[in-house]
Amino acid sequence: MALRTHLYKVQQMIVVALCSSLLFVNCKKVLRDNPDNASVTLKNNAGAAHLSAWVITSWYKLHIRMMLTANPATNNALNAQAFTYFGIGVYESVRSGIKNSVSLSQSLYTMPEMPQKDNNGYDLQVSANAVLASLTRSFFTWLTADNKASVDSLENAINEQLSLSMESAKFNRSQAYGRAVADALYNWSKTDNWNVGNAGYIPPTSPAGVWIPTPPAFAPVPVLPFISNSRPLMIEHASGITPPLPFPYSEIPGSDFYKMVRDVYDLSKVLTHEDSVMALYWNDVGVGVGYTPSGHVFNEVTQAIEQNNIDLGTAAQAYAKAGIASHDAFLVLFRSKYVYNLIRPVSYIRKLWEPAWLPVIPTPPHPEYPSAHAFITSATMRAAVSVLGNISIMDHTYDFLGYKPRPFANLDSAGSEAGNSRRFAGIHYKPSIVTGLTEGRKLGDDVANIKMTQ
Fold this sequence. Notes:
CATH class of the largest domain: Mainly Alpha
Strand content: under 5%
Number of domains: 2
CATH topology of the largest domain: Vanadium-containing Chloroperoxidase, domain 2
Structural class: mainly alpha
Shape: elongated
Order of helices and strands: HHHHHHHHHHHHHEEHH
């Protein structure tokens, strides 16, 4: 115990000194503050089940901090793509320490084989640090000079800590393997056709009830019309859409469509304080205000891992499956949106009832059905739950804005609230949310069935 405590104190001194230059990371959190974890961290041959996940959670926390302050704001779809490859990369980089593990290249569509492993073995945390540092630089092309300094500082601080009791040959071998995995995945990503543009798309103007530009910006062309043409990670998601609304567009009083929109309008007139807080909590956009939807979701996964002391191997699998689900959910969701091309509540309400009406938060510039927050968040959370289990979370994502932490019995519950918040926000109909949650969880279950161990 005396030696363990001494090693822990040495680690603290080194990391605190190195972290003084980190621009966005809370440096005290680079080290786990439980001395009992220190000795585990220093075992050169520890398996992933016996190591803390602090290396990878440190990177995910840096990611969202940089996203929050990026100006102009980062593109949510590009963030989702980055988190996809971060998760796959960290899993592949530590897979040698997960008992009976198999490469995702055996399951994911067109994924290449990963670099050959060295039989001499790796330090898993060094490899994880290397892969995440490399992929961060590759996918976050918007990094400022200060951001790049943060990335360098975090990578160096972790390396300095991990190299305390490790022979240089093993350190170099482990770092090289992580970087090789990152290079292989980044090269593969260049062929995925992740198209976040909308140039050349012409919105249809008929039949009645199609999407039209929404306030306040009234963008003439909606976003992400082509992203569903991207290469799926699971071949079963290369086609297919969600079920349609069970009734047609109508402006006739008493019709199902009329009543559906009226539900949104009437609710907007009787919102409680807590209803409004929920809507604003899941807004997730704005420089210095929101982490983007993808950032919020992966921050919740990170909090679940930290708050429940999840080990490195389990955390790597959770991040990988969450990233895969998020990726393919974008494809199915936006494929469906542009097939149904449904009008937003604000457009219908302003036409029929109140010309100046506005929702609680600005309406995103893309068709209404189904709800993206409901579909993508529930898919991502369901995939993470398949690895992490039914664990609770206290969400501190927006403490800094003065919101109270929000407790969830599990990540599935967080997905439900994310979806339902859009009805209180006034930007989605109830059936859009129900379809999003139901179909998103089905996709998450598809990802859950990917076998990562034999």
